[in-house]
Amino acid sequence: MSNLEIETDLWSKNIINICGIDEVGRGCLAGPVYSAAVVLDQKTNFGSKDFNQINDSKKLSEKKREKLFDYIIDISKFGIGICTVEEIDHLGIQQAVKVSMIRAVESLEIQPDHLLIDNMKLDLDIPQTSIIKGDQISKSISSASIIAKVSRDNLMKNQISNNYPMYKFEKNKGYGTKEHMDAIKTFGITKQHRKSFEPIKSMIENNHEAN
User: What tens digit of pLDDT does each residue of 73-122 get?
Assistant: First the structure.
């Protein structure tokens, strides 16, 4: 489970606004990529049950993520950055992730003193630390992973799925499940599908027209 060792060390050096950053949606076939930037309030009760349950979003149930989402909003300043399907196809997914992360940082209402990023370096003039598996090590990054995941899931469930009900985006969130792939074969490719991702790229090259 993630902890506060990295944050505590930085706080002890009078580095106050420590910003955890993470993304979600990198491996999806459809929908945007989301990043979140989270600065935890030092006045938080770090020994509380809710705080101790903060972990990598992938290790939490949907119900638990949604509960912790509301809790994290209360104990932090946060920002969200998005890169659209069109931007992903134009920039490539790696650069699109970086752009979404930078947008998340820039949307914060406070200026971070230090960035903690899950296995990434950003072109920002802010001191930063890249941490392998950061969403499992740092509470700040774990918090960002939860904010990003719940925010993106809500978009897929409440908006995009309504526009494209045949694809069951409320269930697969844009990932390439068998049900999703079967829907693509039956109904075709939509504007929400990433044209640079396989197997969609090959399907287009084989004269499968996008909607």
Answer: 999 999 999 999 999 999 999 999 999 999 999 999 999 999 999 889 99
Euclidean distance between the first and final Cα of the chain, in Å? 43
Cβ contacts of 209 within 8 Å, gap of 6 or more: 188, 189
Question: Does residue 208 belong to any structural domain of this protein?
Answer: no
Q: Which of 121, 143, 120, 147 is nearest to 18 (CA)?
A: 143
Beta bridge partners of 35: 23, 81
Tens-place pLDDT, residues 153-189: 999 999 999 999 999 999 999 999 999 999 999 999 9
Model confidence, pTM: 0.94
Output the domain CATH number for residue 9: 3.30.420.10
